[in-house]
Amino acid sequence: MSYDILIIGGGIFGMATAVTLQQRGWRTAVLDPGPLPHPLAASTDISKVIRMEYGPDEQYMAMVEESLVGWRQWNESLGPFFHEIGVTMFTQELMAPGGFEYESYQMLLKRGHHPERLNVDEISRRFPAWKPGAFVDGFYHAQGGYAESGRVISALLAEAQRLGADVLTGQTVNEIVREGGRVTAVRTEEGHTFTAGHVVVAAGTWTHLLLPELAPAMKSTGHPVFHLKPAQPELFTAPDFVVFTADIARSGWYGFPLHPGEGVVKIANHGIGQRLHPRDDERVVTAQDEQNFRAFLAATFPALADAPIVYTRRCLYCDTLDEHFWIDRHPAITGLTVAAGGSGHGFKFAPVLGNLIADAVEGRANPWLPKFRWRALASQTTGEEASRHHG
Ligand SMILES: Cc1cc2nc3c(=O)[nH]c(=O)nc-3n(C[C@H](O)[C@H](O)[C@H](O)COP(=O)(O)OP(=O)(O)OC[C@H]3O[C@@H](n4cnc5c(N)ncnc54)[C@H](O)[C@@H]3O)c2cc1C
After folding, report:
1. Looking at ligand 1, which atom is closest to the CA of residue 210?
2. Which of 129, 204, 266, 282 could serve as a FRET partner for 197 with CA atoms 20 to 30 Å apart?
3. Spacing, Cα 315 to ligand 1 middle (Å)
């Protein structure tokens, strides 16, 4: 089979790209081992945070501003799967210059948004699930919330097919074929060959397995996710409880209100994570993870301290060393683009990812792309994503 553009990977980077490339008139196919949404994919989950807050990083906030317009439109045309209930970002000490919450708050004001700063008493009164006095400052911002990410993948898959794309599961790419300096085809473990004028590698945390030259710049890290069954579900329901970060840059902890369909409260940790091989290593949440989690609950949400954990998952990031995405054409091989490096924060940009990646494929100028260009990252490069807990 021959296509204009082949996309390796049916996660959010791949699926959003397929929709946009079809809209731009390209004949595309998405290849994935499947089923889709893939159970091990980072994009497959009950919820992902959609937040504007990125500390002092103005480009990410601008990208989310535009993404929010897209999420609201997708809710009408493809959803609903985006819950705009707002976010709370609280701190255990007063917000201070240089801190993620303080810099985010200042950037929101600078860009004309209206976050509500809350003190210790207002936090207790408005959000009674939080342990009184434990968090003393922060804000509520009405814009943002969460998206049901697995459902988003299914909806975009259907939209890509409606626009004429082939979405081919049962296809695990194991070779990118080059003739001279140009990519001409891919081969799969299942014995098939697909030819195309251009190939997009959007294989998430598996990307550096397909392109080993990227291994020095990106790694797979595993992060714990917990689902709890609250004894008082009403306490964890919006508007009394919304998407939250709990001094996230210093603790890693963040979470969601009671999920309307699943009936659980999901909480996870956005920290350093555990270095893992995406295919060969087991993905488990350890007893130590659970102990850390219980300590966090006892100190933050007393009503959840003893709640039963009904599900756990260790989910993998495609972590670039600087934690910025990797979206660019290969500098030396024609007909090859990489779109990966979500680094634990890529999903919220879904409505703008398609255009961003399609512009990279077509070689079109895009003011946001330089941040994600093909780049040399020294081994001692440190992460720059402001909400990430770096230990
Ligand atoms: C625990 C966790 C929590 C997160 N929370 C948030 C959040 O709250 N907000 C947010 O914005 N972001 C969040 N993220 C980040 C976000 O989920 C990712 O950035 C995004 O989903 C990455 O999408 P992707 O398409 O690059 O990768 P994936 O979704 O992992 O998709 C990659 C696809 O490639 C396929 N594939 C792999 N190898 C091959 C091959 N050889 N051939 C064919 N197909 C292949 C896989 O089957 C898979 O379907 C979180 C991530 C994790 C892990």
Report:
1. 41
2. 204
3. 9
CA–CA separation, 374 and 358 (whole Å) = 16
C-alpha distance across the termini of the chain, in Å: 48
Alpha helix ranges (H) inside the chain? 12-23, 58-77, 100-110, 120-126, 149-162, 207-210, 248-251, 287-300, 350-362
- Atom 51, ligand 1: residue with shortest CA distance: 344
Test site for ligand 1: of 48, 148, 173, most ligand atoms within 8 A of the Cβ: 48
Closest C-alpha to ligand 1, atom 50? 344
What distances in angstroms separate CA 131 from CA 12, 94, 292, one per listed residue? 36, 16, 17
| Structural domain boundaries in the chain | 2-43+150-216+322-372, 82-145+219-320
- 186, 177 in Cβ contact below 8 A? yes
pLDDT, one tens digit per residue, over 234-287 is 999 999 999 999 999 999 999 999 999 999 999 999 999 999 999 999 999 999
- Note whether 47 and 33 are within 8 A (CB): no
Q: What is the dihedral of CA 52, 97, 269, 206, to 10 degrees?
A: 60
pTM as predicted: 0.98
Q: Pick the residue whose CA is nearest to atom 31 on ligand 1.
A: 11
Could you tell me which residues come within 8 angstroms of residue 178 by beta carbon, excluding any fewer than 6 positions away? 184, 333
Distance between Cα 100 and ligand 1 center (Å): 24
In this predicted structure, the answer to whether residue 172 has a pLDDT above a threshold of 90 is: yes
For the domain covering 2-43+150-216+322-372, report its CATH number: 3.50.50.60
Fold of 82-145+219-320: D-Amino Acid Oxidase; Chain A, domain 2 (3.30.9)
Show Cβ contacts of residue 139 under 8 Å, excluding neighbours closer than 6 positions: 88, 89, 101, 105, 115, 116, 117, 118
Cβ atoms 257, 236 nearer than 8 A: yes
Which residues form the pocket of ligand 1, taking CB atoms under 6 Å from any ligand atom? 8-14, 31-33, 38, 41-43, 48-49, 172-173, 202-206, 210, 223, 225, 268, 315-318, 340, 342, 344-348
